[in-house]
Amino acid sequence: MTTEEYNISVDDYSDGVYRFVLHNIRDEDKAKDIVQDSFIKMWEKVAEIDNKKARSYLFTTAYHTMIDAIRREKKFTSFEGVEYNQPSHNNEYLGLKEILRDAVNKLPEVQRSVVLLRDYEGYSYEEIGEITGLNEPQVKVYIYRARVFLKEYIGSLENVI
Which of the two residues, 73 and 33, has the higher pLDDT score? Predict the structure, then answer.
């Protein structure tokens, strides 16, 4: 991959990678850091990467960088700023977009990632397998389980009203 091809990759894929990471971790600053780290890692191996595989390489790198960041963060959780008197459920009506976002956020990490890659970013099962390190049948199972959960969660009338 040449420098010019790398710059084109930055222009073409940065928004998609950012959306993918943001949907998973829901923190804009961390998402920007992860995307930047992913492009740095890609730049370090720019001579080894085929331009046709740049998108896949970038999403794979972003996925693994995101998982590493999540694991690091889990080790250092803090209870500062937790408000104990907050109600656990709010009965106010939420828009469909918020209900869907809430449902996706309740998915386990792997299921959320594969559903976002498939339904939001449009990757094939094979490409998702390459990005996540799962084989194609595992990807299909995780997507199926996630969709069943989403259908049950959103299909429940009290979640929509």
Answer: 33
Are the CB atoms for 122 and 128 separated by under 8 Å?
Answer: no
Rounded to the nearest 10°, the torsion over CA 127, 133, 136, 139 is -90
Q: State which amino acid sits at residue 84.
A: Y
- Residue 74 tokens read as 């889990």
Nearest to 14 by CA among 42, 45, 36, 47: 36
Other CB atoms within 10 Å distance of the CB of residue 111? 20
Alpha helices (H) along 108-156:
109-115, 125-132, 136-155
Please give the residue range of the domain that contains residue 142. Answer: 96-160
Place of tokens 């928004």: 15
Domain annotation covers residue 13: yes
First to last CA, the chain: 51
Number of compact structural domains in the chain: 2
pLDDT band at 85 (very low <50, low <70, confident <90, very high): very low
**Model pTM score:** 0.55
* Single-letter amino acid code for the residue at 43: W
